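Today's session is about reading a structure prediction critically. Students often jump straight to the picture, but the first step is always the sequence itself: look for stretches that repeat, for charged clusters, for runs of hydrophobic residues. Only then move on to the predicted structure, which in these notes is written as discrete structure tokens rather than atom positions. Here is the chain we will use throughout the hour.
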Amino acid sequence: MADAGGEGALELAARRLERAVTQLEQRLSQRLAQASAGADSASDYDRAQLAAALDEARARERELEEAGAAASAALARAISEIRATIGQAREA
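Below is the predicted structure for this chain, in token form.
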């Protein structure tokens, strides 16, 4: 009769262990789902920040290109004026 009681206790312990493992798996699944959801929103935020930074960089690039073109034109005018002045000085 001691064996019957031992088997009952063993079966009870096995069921308790099985329930505990099931609960652990459920909690782990919930945590993974929460972490995944948080990672998605974090990566969306990062993407939005990167997109905004890229837009700012492109705008700055356009500004620098315009400034470079303006500086180049001004330099070309200055060179022309210097050549004209040198040409006039040689004639005189």
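Discussion point for the tutorial: The chain has a mean pLDDT of 86.
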